[in-house]
Amino acid sequence: MVERWNLAASGEGQVVELFGEAGIGKSRILQELRERLKEEAITYLRYFCSPFHTETALYPVADQLLRAADINRTDPPEKQLMFLEQALSTAQSPHEAIPLIAALLSIPTDNRYPKLDLMPQKQKARTFEVLIEQLEALARNKPVLMLLEDAHHLDPVSAELFDVIVDRMQRLPIMLVATSRPEGILRWNGFPHATVLTLNRLSRAQAASIITVMTGGKQLPSSVLDQILSKTEGVPLFIEELTKVILESWPAQRER
Fold first, then answer.
1. What is the structure's pLDDT at 254?
2. What is the pTM of this model?
3. Is the domain of 140 the same as that of 189?
4. Where are the alpha helices (DSSP H) in 11-93?
């Protein structure tokens, strides 16, 4: 992934699809990637998909925009619009971009902007263009790392948008990393700038090394170690959680 990032940062956009079951370490990989790149000047865009919003058009995109603009849904509509205007002040055509994004975020604009009079398909297309223009503007300033988590919950409209982004980013300093469960769809494997990675369960030796780190190098009784290894079946999150439970229940063990 760091190799792919180096390509992206040089202007050869990359997309990485990261597959793995729950608890296997997808989020941890993203955390480690950010740690490796912490000294670099990067714009991070983070998108979270939700099993409760698989039919809500552009849910992860709207969620990211609200966070980026620091918009609180409990604020009055006027304040929400003000924050959105500040966030989009550098847009290519703010007077067109702001009402489109305000409509996406369900923020009323009253009479401050011309009323959108577009057919749904045309409005979606123009919204896509505004979002991509903003992304391209960010990429001209410094490389962009986009993290799309739980892509198996993408709503259809968001999937369509990210398809366009993946196609456009090939000559831009952008990397998109999309995490997904094994049952997720392989979306972009046909693109020359796409990479597919699968995280498999750990071997017993790898799992034991995690336990050793957590115990500070102290050895657990072999029967306890075998119990952890057999019950967690090589899933890192389960290994960590069960080891924590055992260490907390045996405080004397940690003092040996």
1. 46
2. 0.85
3. yes
4. 26-36, 59-68, 77-87
- Domain, as residue range, for 55: 2-198
* CA dist list (Å): 187 to 13, 30, 49, 57, 96: 16, 19, 15, 18, 31
The residue type of 66 is L
Residue 231 sits at φ, ψ, to 5 deg, of -75, -30
Q: How far, in Å, CA of 183 to CA of 162, rounded?
A: 19
Residue 254 and residue 218 in contact, taking contact as beta carbons nearer than 8 Å: yes
Radius of gyration over every alpha carbon of the chain, rounded to an integer in angstroms? 22
CA distance 177 to 69: 22
Amino acid letter, residue 22: A
Tokens standing for residue 161: 């948008």
* pLDDT for 246: 84
**Torsion sign (Cα): 90, 93, 95, 97:** negative
Q: What gap in Å lies between CA 206 and CA 26, rounded to an integer?
A: 17
Residue 60's SS3 state is helix
Phi/psi-derived region of residue 166, left when phi > 0, alpha when psi is between -120 and 50, beta in every other case: alpha
Residue 24 has φ and ψ, to the nearest 5°, of -80, -15
Where is the domain boundary, 180, 198, 216? 198
| Segments of the chain with pLDDT less than 70 | 250-256
The pLDDT value recorded for residue 242 is 83
